[in-house]
Amino acid sequence: MDQLTLWMALGFLFAGYSVIANDSVQTLGTWIASNNQKFKWQTMWAAASVVLLFTLWHGWYMNGGDISYGRLDKIPFQEIQWYHAAAPLVLLLLTRVGVPVSTSFLVLSAFASTFVLEKMLVKSIMGYAVAGVFAYALWILIARWLDERNDPVKESHKKYWRVGQWITTGFLWWTWLSHDIANIAVFLPRQVPWDMMVGVSVIFVGGLAFMLREGGGKIQQIVLEKQHTRYVRSACISLKN
Q1: How many domains does the chain have?
Q2: Helix 41-62 × helix 155-180 angle, to 10°
Q3: d(CA 40, CA 96)
Q4: 51 vs 54, 183, 226, CA distance in Å?
Q5: Nearest to 110 by CA among 177, 178, 15
Q6: Residue 5's pLDDT is what?
Q7: What range does the domain containing 201 cover?
Q8: pLDDT, mean of residues 164-192
Q9: CA dihedral for 33, 34, 35, 38, sign (positive or negative)
Q10: What b-and-e string marks burial along 130-158, b requiring 16 or more CB atoms within 10 Å of the CB?
Q11: Are 211 and 20 in contact (CB under 8 A)?
């Protein structure tokens, strides 16, 4: 293995673990919190892995080997240097101590031009602002009528809320993967051969298993500090927001 291949492999591994452990817990955290007492982590891992593999291989098949869903079109593949691999390593260290960060800026900034980075910054700030204001406003209104601590869901109704939660989680998980997989794919050729795809799939599924076996890791503690994340009805509604 030459030096450039080594940096590509290390960058991919660092990015794969840190992006899954950081961003996916922010996506799956509420689902994990409200289900880890009901289901074994292996069951949740199998369900999350189905969506993960579908997203990976669907993108690979539909986009001619490009698993980033075209989101790296303006960032051409380049020879990976040590400083490219250093960015996800910093992200990995932050993830291990429980610091939620924007993986796109930390990883892609090492590859993107100033113009592309500026557009990413503007779009992300606007997206976070709109999503944050809308989600909090809607949740404040809903929480007035659905306070599960004082008005618990009937046991006979919980199964319906749980089914709804798993469906919304699956959709959210697919949406996140199809967008943020670019933060990992940036270390790979833009057209990934099938044999490399098999290896990528194995690494992703293995990383997901490790994350779920840990119960979400350090980032999950931030999710658990939020109100209602352990209640199935509240968790289902919050996922939609």
Answers
A1: 1
A2: 40
A3: 23
A4: 5, 18, 26
A5: 15
A6: 79
A7: 3-240
A8: 87
A9: positive
A10: eeeeeeeeebeeeeeeeebeeeebeeeeb
A11: yes
The mean pLDDT value for 126-153 works out to 66
Residue 119, both tokens: 């557009």
Tokens, residue 69 = 């869903």
Query: Is 19:216 a contact under the CB 8 Å cutoff?
Result: no
The pTM for the full model equals: 0.74
For residue 100, how many C-alpha atoms fall within 13 Å in the half-sphere facing its CB?
Answer: 13
Confidence of residue 115 (pLDDT cuts 50, 70, 90): very low
Beta carbons of 7 and 80 less than 8 angstroms apart: yes
Would you say 59 and 171 are in contact if contact means Cβ atoms under 8 Å apart?
A: no
- CA distance linking residue 92 with residue 95, whole number of Å: 5
- Spell out the residues 6+ positions from residue 29 whose beta carbon is closer than 8 angstroms to its own: 216, 219, 220, 222, 223, 229
Exposure class string for 197-229: b at 16+ Cβ within 10 A, else e: beebbebbbebbbebbeeebbbbbeebeeeebb
Site of tokens 């539909």 = 62
For residue range 42-86, list pLDDT tens digits in order: 999 999 999 999 999 999 999 999 998 888 887 888 778 878 888
Each residue's pLDDT tens digit, 96-106? 666 666 666 66
- Alpha carbon dihedral 229, 168, 45, 216, in 10-degree steps, equals -30
* Cα–Cα dist 219/119, whole Å: 28
